[in-house]
Design goal:
alpha/beta, EreA/ChaN-like  fold, 41% helix, 442 residues, EreA/ChaN-like, small alpha-beta sandwich, 16 helices, globular
Length: 442
């Protein structure tokens, strides 16, 4: 498999060191703890004039060293290059309260930003002081530039709430079924998984009713139901560990290491029993879902950008351009196809190993040692070209070797694998300092 799913991160090192010779690699030095925009200005001034969308990659979501570089890139692109949309690899429903905060002109305190981060962002690496600092900068920029405000949008798959599916469609077109479902939901102990099961089973059982709706309503209903189902299916498929069936027909499912019991007609169990999951070869069910996710994310980026210049902040693997004969396309492939030279991608790596924030099975976040410590790209580049932390470009890197680069990829934060890609998969490579874990807001 040349590409892995959207949660994967990329670290890059070079093979075939014997072909490097004594060539000089042109790069802009990037100090480990440099808070100035000078290196970025030196590297990118004059290179982004025709660019509409910048894909800003990160090797891991759990590392504040990479975040610091990307944060500086946002400052540069917004303040000096006129970019007005910042799209984050997260569902837009999560970003709405954060965007509302940076759009309004009200006063604020640091404590109010911290509270907003805790209340809005789910448990994960982004619930931290780095995100709070980004929000503060965006808020201050918008207050100082009321006619040129930046918008903060999400471009990852979103799930329309089951209550909204119930109210917008089932109550309107099938009040009797809606009453039955609402009665079930009045029980405070009724599980969220069962609520989803109720609305999706309603869709399966009322295909004839749905067929009688006018075309516009029917199209919107099917989009909302199917998009939510596919999104839940993708996230559950990533977190799925084991299902076994009880004698009464119910099933035991483990998600995030937690056991739950679901009925025999549960939508996810039915999906898991779909023969497509058992297809052998490169296009298994998880890969199909990943391909759907990335193609939709590309659409969300283009729609979110509109006529404005936009920044897309996501894993390196999502923002990269076409590789070779891939098993399936990711977001960067689609954006490159849609935008051509107007799409520019910057991927990141780090000069030394260290600790990152990693997910535990119960969705807790802990500090995890980077297993690739001592095997990063800079170890080879520094030896051959005196290249420490800095910014280099694909055109220059390709001159040191005609061979492809070997990429380290991750399935989850802190776990690594390998794949091969050509230099043309990105426009620029930023080597930042040593990995440091992000500062969580408790």
């Amino acid at each position: 498999m040349k590409k892995l799913s959207g949660c994967f991160l990329i670290l890059l090192f070079v093979t075939c060191a014997n072909v490097y010779g004594q060539q000089k690699l042109n790069f802009t030095p990037l100090a480990d703890a440099d808070t100035s925009l000078a290196p970025i200005e030196t590297a990118f001034n004059g290179k982004l004039d025709a660019v509409k969308v910048v894909g800003l990659g990160e090797a891991t979501h759990g590392d504040k060293t990479t975040f610091a570089f990307n944060f500086n890139m946002v400052k540069y692109l917004v303040a000096q290059r006129g970019f007005r949309i910042l799209l984050i690899e997260a569902p837009n429903s999560v970003l709405v309260p954060l965007n509302n905060f940076i759009q309004n002109d009200s006063d604020y305190t640091q404590a109010s930003i911290d509270t907003l981060v805790i209340r809005t962002i789910p448990v994960g690496a982004y619930r931290d002081r780095q995100t709070a600092a980004l929000l503060k900068w965006l808020k201050d920029y918008n207050l100082g530039h009321p006619a040129q405000k930046v918008q903060l949008l999400g471009m990852s798959l979103d799930v329309k709430p089951n209550t909204q599916l119930l109210n917008d469609y089932i109550k309107r077109y099938d009040p009797q079924s809606a009453h039955v479902i609402t009665t079930k939901w009045e029980n405070k102990n009724y599980k969220s998984m069962n609520k989803w099961n109720d609305v999706f089973n309603w869709q399966d059982e009322h295909t004839q009713l749905i067929a009688t709706l006018d075309d516009t309503t029917k199209k919107k209903l099917l989009y909302d139901f199917n998009n939510s189902k596919q999104t839940l299916e993708f996230y559950l498929d990533v977190d799925y560990q084991f299902i076994k069936q009880n004698k009464d027909g119910s099933n035991i499912i483990f998600v995030h290491g937690q056991q739950d019991t679901v009925p025999a007609d549960n939508f996810y169990v039915k999906l898991r029993n779909n023969p497509a999951y058992k297809i052998n070869g490169p296009k298994n069910r998880t890969m199909q879902l990943s391909a759907i996710r990335d193609s939709l994310m590309a659409v969300y980026v283009v729609q979110g950008a509109g006529n404005e210049k936009a920044i897309v902040w996501a894993h390196n693997d999502h923002v990269m351009k076409p590789e070779t004969a891939d098993t399936y396309l990711l977001m960067g492939d689609h954006l490159n196809s849609m935008l051509g030279k107007q799409y520019y991608t910057i991927i990141t790596n780090y000069s030394q190993g260290g600790s990152i924030r990693a997910f535990g099975k119960s969705m807790t976040i802990k500090k995890a040692q980077n297993p690739m410590d001592g095997q990063t790209v800079v170890k080879i580049l520094n030896k051959k070209f005196d290249y420490g932390s800095g910014i280099a470009f694909s055109a220059d890197l390709s001159t040191i070797s005609k061979y492809n680069a070997v990429m380290n990829t991750a399935g989850l934060e802190g776990t690594f694998g390998l794949e091969t890609v050509p230099w043309s998969s990105f426009d620029a490579l930023a080597i930042v300092g040593a990995l440091q874990p992000r500062d969580l807001i408790q």
